[in-house]
Design brief:
The protein is an alpha/beta fold. 45% of the residues lie in helices and 24% in strands. Strands 3, 4, 5, 6, 9, 10 and 11 form a 7-stranded mixed beta sheet that branches. Strands 1-2 form a two-stranded antiparallel ribbon. It starts with a helix and ends with a helix.
Amino acid sequence: MTLFSYEIFDAVAQQGSFNKAAQQLHLTPSAISHAIAVMEEELGFTLFNRGKNGVTMTSYGASLYPSIRAVLNSDEALKQSIARLNGLEKGKVTLGAFNSACSYLLPQVLKSFKDAYPQIEVEVYQGTYDDVKNWLRNGTVDLGFLSSNCAEDFCMTELMSDPLMVITPANQPAPAGGVMTPELLHGQKFVVQGDATDADVRKFLKKHKIDTQRPAHVLDDMACIAMVEAGVGMAIVPKLLLKNCHAAVNIYPIKPEELRVIGIATLRPGAMAPAVEQLYHHIVQHCTAVTE
């Protein structure tokens, strides 16, 4: 198989469609279909399941995908190294981020990075903690924002500490001293998110053995705040999420303070391509300046 066939495989895997992959690579859908068929014939097994709703990787295709991404990443790193030797700063970097980092941290980082390195393209993927970890493992992203609570086997550089806060409906009486404690949270109605999004909050609740009623299970941060504003229940959210929050909710600190530590993670820190390394250092420097 050729490098271009790897690029076709990657495009189909990411797009879930021969037509969308063809648009991405400026080819015809029949050319994409033929290339995949040739790969499958050469390998001796099927790479994709074809269906009315698109295509999905077979178990064989999924097992090959991390290796194919590694080849493509190595090719990109080689191109960037050559560009650096020629005195150019160019290349492409893929970055994974969870919701609050994507909404309230990344915009400023990307703007200043683009100003400094206009020839380096940055592609952002937004998802849950689990999404970011999977993207790092299979090579979809070069760098990923994660919480230290779910960094696992990744090499993570800590960037900032983000306190957890309690938000309550506007008509709910304030706690004594305007501070929430674990004892005050026992038995309360809570709006919660999935494990892959709410890892820090769930660790806090488990740590203090806080039993809660959970009338609402939502997927994203904005839905969580909206549910609290509507009076469905209270919620525990990172302070970063409340930046520029205009919702009619009460916001209280937690005592003792509980922190979410945000970091930038990579799978292989010693094998970062030049452009990836530039973005990595830029993110670290930006967050250091913000928190000082």
